[in-house]
Amino acid sequence: MKPYKEMSREELLELKDELKKQYKMMRGLNLSLDMSRGKPCIEQLDISMEMMDILNSSSDLTCEDGMDCRNYGVLDGLPEAKKLIGDMIEVPAENLIIYGNSSLNIMYDAISRSMTHGVMGSTPWCCLDKVKFLCPVPGYDRHFAITEYFGIEMINIPMTDEGPDMDLVEKYVSEDEMVKGIWCVPKYSNPQGITYSDRVVKRFARLKPAAKDFRIYWDNAYSMHHLYEDEQENILEILEESKKAGNPDIVYKFSSTSKISFPGSGVAAIATSPNNLVDIKKQLAIQTIGHDKVNQLRHVRYYKDINGIIAHMKKHADILRPKFETVLEVLETELGGLEIASWHKPKGGYFISFDTLNGCAKEVVERAQKAGVKLTSAGATYPYGKDPNDSNIRIAPSFPPAKDLKTAMELFTLCVKLASIERYLTMLEEKA
Ligand code: PMP
């Protein structure tokens, strides 16, 4: 089929009629599929079930340094859990604090603490006229929700194929003292699956912030989440790079086992410089006596070491890879050559980022929802839910059963075609 932009009004109208019939037929299938969030599917949850057998009433819950994990104690995590998570995110155990079940929670806490108490003795952000954050776009909606909740002004930074536009990042960070942070998902980014290049990581490490309390919020959520064993993407370790660049305190690095073991019931951590750790622990010691050590122990005894996690992630990849491939195949078969959309082909992570013609994303998501396929809301990948082009849609292939995914994507591509035809018809009308 030829590109839509080369079609006459009559050809477009004829095609629209045909596609509308197909859409009506698909609505009759009464689909009910959720592709809105990056949730692991049931088979993925099942592969971690043996973790439930690791501890029982006869287990010895003493950790390596003799601490009884059933009781209070240990603010920053069991030594063996710090070693395991440290190996996972390539950071020495002494640079880590293990928290509870959620890395997003740690990010929220970091912003909240900066608001009320400042960063390492600097003025609390709540006492400033304005605080700004840089937001590479498209990005993760829950990051943007946190900064919006605290009234922090968000500035869009376009993503390139190797990470955020660093010319812009450097300009804002070095010139504007109100810029206090940037959200980054540096590996298999949410939603584009982009891994930051060495050049980009080095430029982050060498930033010269106008604000001494500027921090890079380095959310390493997908560090282990490769889809292909022979095409793994890797990234320079940012804490090491920032230390080398004479900027040791500039990074907070976050991670969790949410999409490794059980989402919402994993182990989460922050890694950062010794100075930042001291600052954070002042708050932490007030906030809690200690996090869930039994869960930390369960994770360590189940995975044993980093090789256990690597082997486990291969099982996840074996389930996820065919799903990603199904989505990409349908996109290529149905939309290839029509010049009405573009999409990323990630090598890891949880999402496929899709762009419609400008002004079509909302309509596509609404149409798909009416026919029973729930997608992430259009606009969600931008601060304030406002995609200036109304074009980006985040596709999450993990959750629906493999057998339904093809149908869901056929419906999705149908919705993209219909919205694009309408866009072209409007443009022709405007020209006439
Ligand atoms: N960061 C990113 C980039 C994510 O995509 C997700 C999960 N969708 C999270 C954080 C949430 O992590 P956690 O469960 O550890 O809070």
From TrEMBL:
UniProt GO molecular function: DNA binding; L-aspartate:2-oxoglutarate aminotransferase activity
Could you confirm whether the keyword Ribosomal protein appears in this record?
no
Q: Which domain of life is it from?
A: Bacteria
Q: Which InterPro entries match?
A: AspAT_Ic, PyrdxlP-dep_Trfase, PyrdxlP-dep_Trfase_major, PyrdxlP-dep_Trfase_small
Q: Which Pfam families match?
A: Asp_aminotransf
**Keyword terms of this UniProt record:** Aminotransferase, DNA-binding, Transferase
Name of the molecule in the record: DNA-binding transcriptional regulator, MocR family, contains an aminotransferase domain
